[in-house]
Write a structure and sequence with these properties.
- This protein folds into two domains: 145 residues, no CATH class; 106 residues, no CATH class.
- 50% of the residues lie in helices and 19% in strands.
- An eight-stranded antiparallel sheet has the order 5-4-7-8-1-2-3-6.
- A hairpin with a 2-residue loop joins strand 4 and strand 5.
- Helix 4 packs antiparallel against helix 6.
Length: 277
């Protein structure tokens, strides 16, 4: 997306108002780091919102003058001719009424000014609070992903340690399996211990099978395929060593894709991997 197209897309307004999605927030933060224009646009939007709030909260000068005029008109005595009166010469109720009206107008203006100031501060605080809340949500999301990646790395390292211990065990042989024409990019590794007959497989890069299908390992013994068991391949299991059936002897190993539960004989056209001992 071009820079100008991104700025005019409305995502920045949603970001400032607190209605953006997590993906939009991440996108805005990345663009803000790359382009100063994006940061400036965000600040302009925040300033516009604050000005809008101030305009609603601050009574205009004309309104103030109208209020003062109406108050003085209601309290002024009817006059048949123009007379200049010194307010200091007034006495009794008329003088105190003028003082009361003046005090009321002053109080009204003061309250309006205070309301404007308070609302302005509240609007600024709300804008900043929304931005902080969005930032916290993004940070929490990033932290959660990092923790998940760390757990996955620890699990992979643990599996590697187990795998290394199996390889170092006396009598163990490592048999690499390479991808056939149906899956040339796939691979796996067999650890076969010729002393205790145990067989393990690490299906490093086999694709997840379709629903109702399952991979099956075969041991080639004197030219005949012997079932060595079925195994699971799902996302996140590529580094897991899986225990298969014990094999007293074998000259090669192969993997085919069969119906779930396995087959009595291998489906040759669905052979994914093969390797010699």
């Amino acid at each position: 997306m071009e820079l100008q197209e991104f700025i005019s897309s409305g995502v920045l307004e949603s970001y400032v108002l607190g209605t953006a999605t997590t993906e939009e927030i991440r996108q805005v933060r990345e663009m803000e780091k790359l382009y100063p224009e994006v940061k400036a646009e965000i600040e302009d939007i925040e300033a516009s919102l604050i000005r809008f709030a101030e305009a609603d909260a601050n009574p205009s000068t004309r309104i103030k003058k109208d209020i003062e005029a109406q108050l003085f008109e209601k309290t002024a005595a009817p006059k048949k001719r123009s007379t200049v009166v010194n307010i200091s010469s007034l006495s009794g109720p008329s003088k105190w009424m003028r003082y009361a009206v003046a005090a009321s107008v002053g109080l009204l203006i003061g309250v309006s000014a205070f309301t404007y100031s308070l609302y302005s501060q509240l609007s600024k605080t709300q804008v900043r609070l929304s931005a902080l809340q969005l930032e916290n949500e993004v940070l929490a999301d990033e932290m959660g992903k990092q923790q998940l990646e760390l757990r996955q790395q620890i699990a992979a390292l643990t599996d590697k340690k187990i795998e290394l211990a199996m390889v170092m065990k006396p009598g163990s042989k490592v048999v690499p399996l390479k991808g056939m024409d149906i899956a040339p990019e796939s691979s796996a590794m067999i650890i076969w211990n010729t002393k205790d007959k145990e067989v393990y497989i690490n299906a490093a890069s086999l694709p997840t099978p379709p629903q109702g299908k399952q991979y099956q390992l075969w041991a080639m013994v004197n030219g005949k395929p012997v079932d060595a068991g079925v195994f699971t391949v799902t996302e996140g299991t590529s580094f897991v060593m899986q225990k298969m059936k014990d094999m007293p002897e074998a000259q090669a190993f192969a993997v085919t894709l069969e119906n779930e539960g396995g087959s009595a004989t291998p489906t040759m056209e669905a052979m994914y991997l093969m390797g010699s001992v």
